[in-house]
Design brief:
single chain, about 425 residues, alpha+beta, 17 helices, about 20% strand, elongated
């Protein structure tokens, strides 16, 4: 397959320097956005999937660019015609409430808004393909940033003034040319929205692949695609068992899309085991194990999150760290080098071992797991602030806000604690699953 020319241009620009203050962020996440845009074509094309009804529907539904909605059908009320998420809440109360707490609703946060201020129009437009995919959202963004082809006429009444700031909205997935689409349901009211078209595609993992899978030949490091979540799932036990993206991330059809940012989701997905053995020479042998039996792809799947595992000995009111391990795919801030890849693949395991002299008093061993959902972004934001002191005030404010919010998303799971064995040969264990 031929990599689109814009991807090739981006890679060339990345090679020409991370600290170029005149083009600071074009060297970073733009490549990810471009690759996602390419994925929409590659992963929904007949060349990748059989010509089944789901593939045919998705190739049209996610065709890029998404066409403007156009004039509402005659007889549509203002609520039916509107693309604002709040209007959907008039009837879909629970779905709107869930969406409001999801990362989809925050897809146009300060981090991406900062990038739009310093990227070219073409590059920005490709980022919007997943962060704010509707044509009307792109038009509003163009007006805000003074893009050359921004609309000169008044926006239609069905477009709220802040639609471009609302991220991945209800209409992004469910509305095309004012027609409503969704999964099969027992609820039927042909008078609403001019009818509702049920599609099995909304239950299929391929529905998610345009934004969660880079195509073959797209941006890679060490021969591995930067974003490979759909393929990781497709080759996992979860896929073979019939568990889809929606099974875990939209349980009971809820619009929550929880993942690495959510402690409960992570707790359900991983299993933590701790074993402490007292050796004959008075030392301790400690082994921590983490598996991910409830995760349908690599844990974590993307280059952004990191998981820090550490072992601690606590005795007599003091504590000492015995060892630590970072689980994740660590790449340079400019995303041109991979430093390590310690992710847990489906069916795999991460181990952390340590030895220490056993205290003479009562003691215990703790395994701690800290989740850093945006670790890569933290490094990237800090590098941009350091390398671009002449950044304009608005861009700097957005970047600092993005940094604060990303750092605030870190959390620690409850510790796994094993009592210290007292006699040679004794073993204590603790499990959290």
């Amino acid at each position: 397959m031929i990599v689109p020319q814009f991807t090739a241009r981006l890679i060339n620009r990345i090679r020409h320097g991370f600290a170029d203050a005149t083009r600071p962020t074009l060297l970073l996440l733009t490549g990810l956005a471009f690759s996602i845009a390419c994925g929409i074509y590659f992963y929904l094309s007949a060349g990748e999937f059989p010509a089944d009804p789901v593939a045919r529907f998705l190739s049209a539904h996610w065709a890029q660019p998404i066409a403007p909605q156009g004039d509402p059908p005659p007889g549509f009320s203002a609520i039916e015609a509107s693309l604002a998420p709040e209007t959907c809440a008039a009837c879909h109360v629970a779905q709107y409430a869930d969406w409001s707490t999801s990362l989809h609703s925050k897809a146009m946060g300060p981090g991406i808004r900062w990038q739009l201020r310093v990227m070219t129009q073409s590059d920005s437009n490709d980022c919007l393909r997943c962060h704010a995919p509707l044509a009307e959202q792109k038009a509003l963004t163009g007006l805000e940033h003074g893009w050359a082809n921004a609309p000169t006429s008044t926006m239609p009444a069905y477009v709220s003034a802040d639609l471009h700031r609302r991220g991945n909205t209800c209409a992004s997935c469910h509305v095309r040319r004012h027609q409503r689409f969704g999964p099969p349901t027992q609820i039927r009211n042909p008078k609403l929205h001019g009818g509702f078209e049920a599609q099995q595609a909304f239950r299929d993992s391929r529905f998610c692949s345009p934004c969660h899978q880079f195509p073959p030949g797209a941006r890679s490091l060490e021969g591995k695609l930067i974003e490979n979540t759909y393929e990781e799932w497709r080759n996992s036990p979860a896929a073979r068992q019939g568990s889809t993206c929606q099974t875990c991330h939209m349980p009971e059809r809820r619009h929550i899309w929880r993942g690495i940012h959510d402690p409960d989701t992570v707790r359900k997905g991983i299993r933590r085991e701790l074993e402490v053995k007292r050796l004959a020479d008075g030392r301790l042998e400690v082994l921590a194990s983490i598996t991910a039996p409830g995760v349908g792809h690599y844990f974590p799947t993307y280059v952004v999150p990191k998981v820090l595992v550490s072992l601690h000995l606590l005795a007599a009111g003091k504590e000492r760290e015995l060892g630590r391990l970072v689980i994740g795919r660590t790449v340079s801030a400019d995303m041109v080098r991979e430093w390590s890849d310690t992710r847990i693949h489906p069916g795999g395991r991460s181990l952390l071992s340590a030895k220490a002299v056993a205290p003479t008093s009562a003691y215990r061993i703790e395994m701690r797991v800290e989740i850093m959902p945006g670790e890569h972004y933290v490094r990237m934001y800090r590098a941009m602030l350091l390398n671009n002191p002449d950044m304009d005030a608005t861009a700097q404010a957005l970047l600092r806000q993005a940094l604060r919010e990303t750092e605030a998303a870190n959390y620690r799971l409850d510790s796994v604690t094993a009592a210290g064995p007292t006699n040679p040969g004794d073993v204590t264990r603790a499990i959290a699953k």
